Amino acid sequence: MKKPEGEQRTSPVAGAYVLVRSRRRTVGLEVRLDATLVVRAPTRTPVWYVESLLREKAGWIEDKLAKARSHVSLLPRHDFLTGERFPYLGRDWPFMVVAFQKTPLTFDEKTGFSLDMAAFDRGEVVFEEWYRARARELLAERVQHYAPLVGVSLPRLRITGAERRWGSCSTTGTVSFAWRLIMAPMDVVDYVVVHELAHRREMNHSARFWAVVASVLPDYDVRRRWLKDHGVMLTI
Predict the structure, then answer these.
(1) Alpha-carbon distances, residue 13 vs 19, 20, 62, 79, 190 (angstroms)
(2) What is the rounded radius of gyration, in angstroms, for the C-alpha atoms of the chain?
(3) How far is it, in rounded angstroms, from Cα 26 to Cα 53?
(4) Long-range contacts of range 14-20, CB-CB < 8 Å, 24 or more positions apart?
(5) E strand or H helix that includes residue 39
(6) pLDDT higher than 90, residue 95
(7) CA 133 to CA 33: how far, in whole Å?
(8) CA–CA distance, 173 with 133 (Å, rounded to integer)
(9) CA-CA distance, 19 to 181, in Å (whole number)?
(10) β-strands 15-22, 7-11 pairing
């Protein structure tokens, strides 16, 4: 899991955190899956303002950090060594490091993943690139399949690096999916696709919205539950 780039700071209330400044309008707090607290703030936000917000949100931060820490020990740890296993479409596939491979990373349904030795130091980046490319290809196919069943036109598709949101639908109709979704079983992938397409008819989580989802996937709640229970494990 990539570490966020930013200023490492320590708060008397929240402890260690990463301050990331960018061209944004508001201050946002994020507790990552690895129990890292990230504060995203506009470029000129003074540190005293950030500290006051951390004090205000101390209870929320403590709860989120405690939950994240309880999962950290369960998260898969990858050193990109032969014999490890990596998730793809609901299965953990074998992994090996090889020599003189034409591409940095390949996948075969019989042998699993293989990483060229020359790309060993970039293992995490190479894997993410592969997952992103496969996610764009597969999710475009699933969106094309389900859009007519949901009763909506084909939307624009985005693949994101989101860690906590599997999908989203903008008011302009663009649907976005986290690349990590490609690690989940296919029926779970389909649930998230239908969920976001349904938002193009109902931009809420009302009874009408869930009726749209159920009309396409009557067992959506089972798929939804799997993602809630196992989603934290879908990471490299």
Answers:
(1) 15, 18, 9, 33, 42
(2) 20
(3) 12
(4) 14/54, 14/58, 14/61, 17/54, 19/47, 19/50
(5) strand 37-42
(6) yes
(7) 23
(8) 22
(9) 27
(10) antiparallel
pLDDT in tens, 174-203: 999 999 999 999 999 999 999 999 999 999
Q: What is the 3-state secondary structure (H, E, C) of the chain?
A: CCCCCCEEEEECCCEEEEEEEECCCCCEEEECCCCCEEEEEECCCCHHHHHHHHHHCHHHHHHHHHHHHHHHCCCCCCCCCCCCEEEECCEEEEEEEECCCCCCEEEECCCEEEEEHHHHHHHHHHHHHHHHHHHHHHHHHHHHHHHHHHCCCCCCEEEECCCCCCEEECCCCCEEEEHHHHHCCHHHHHHHHHHHHHCCCCCCCCHHHHHHHHHHCCCHHHHHHHHHHHHHHCCC
For the whole model, what pTM was predicted?
Answer: 0.75
- Count the Cβ atoms, other than its own, within 10 Å of residue 185: 16
On whether the CB atoms of residues 32 and 163 are closer than 8 A, the answer is yes
3-class SS of residue 232:
helix
182, two tokens:
């490609």
99/3 Cα distance (integer angstroms)? 29
Beta-strand pair 175-178/157-160: parallel
Q: How do residues 48-68 score in pLDDT, each as one tens digit?
A: 999 999 999 999 999 988 888
Average confidence (pLDDT) over 82-95: 95
